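Late entry, written up from scratch paper. The run itself happened at the end of the previous shift, but nothing got recorded in the book at the time, so transcribing now.
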Amino acid sequence: MRFPLFLIILWASVILAVMSTSDAYAFLVDQVVEYQINLQPNFLELLKFSDVAFNDAFYLAQKTGHLLSFGILYILMFIWLKQTFYSWFLCTSFAFFSEVFQLFFDRNGRLFDVGIDLIGIFLAHHLIIRVLNFKNEFSKNG
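Output as recorded:
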């Protein structure tokens, strides 16, 4: 089935394009798209947790975007592969890759964000399980 693969590639491209903009606030609020390449990123930035700010509304909106975007990616991946392990593995790998990728665009790549992405994947997985269980119950009783 090629259509879900096209959607996966498109959605992953959107995730990377959005996560790589130089200024997330300018992108989301002012719709300004700008990229700055950094060929010598500091990979220790991945370990930084001091900028976690749950009391900031914009920060929470960004993290909600992470959660939803990787949840949607997992659903698309599951529709294509119909296997939870490979869907989880590919989405998790992409979450790590996307955070490292951001470092090359002067963005804040963080392992903390990978955790947020994993929560989105986890929630999407449980949504799929519930839908499949409901579908199976409905077909038994219907």
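Residues 88 and 95 are 10 Å apart (CA to CA).
(Scratch paper discarded after transcription.)
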